[in-house]
Structure prediction request, 175 residues.
Amino acid sequence: VPPAWYQLRWVQALALLLLAVLVVLAMRWRMRRGQMRELLLQQKVLARTAELSQANARLAQLAGEDVLTGLYNRRRAFERLEELHAWRQRMPGSDCVVLLDLDHFKQINDRYGHLGGDAVLRSVGHLVCSQLRTIDVAARYGGEELLLVLIDTTLEQGRLVCERLAQALRELRVP
Prediction:
């Protein structure tokens, strides 16, 4: 009796070859799927890393910014002063440091309340920023005190800036 067709050697060899091809194709499919998952995961990691970098940059900005005035806070101002001091060790020059105090600010708070005082501080902060150069440093030093560092400015130039700033402050109207 001749053997059944599935018992023939060439049929068995062909079946083994077909099985091997199917195994290889299945392995390639799984590897490709794994690579696609890895690529998607890498994209997610990159996106999250970018988000974290932006959040960290924003936190660093907020950590050095006075929320009310938009100026540097005292800590960031001192950091900038240290940087400037280190810079001046290498590159001599003249800078002008100004401590600005708003006169009778307590009366504004007493008369208009703290919200009125906050409005004044906000307006003064915007005014100071508009009057100074971008390289200059403006910071809230205390309650109603501001610290200004005028970079590459002589004493005479600093006096002129202060006069211009004082005039602008006199003309400032806060609703």
Q: What stands out?
A: The radius of gyration is 35 Å.
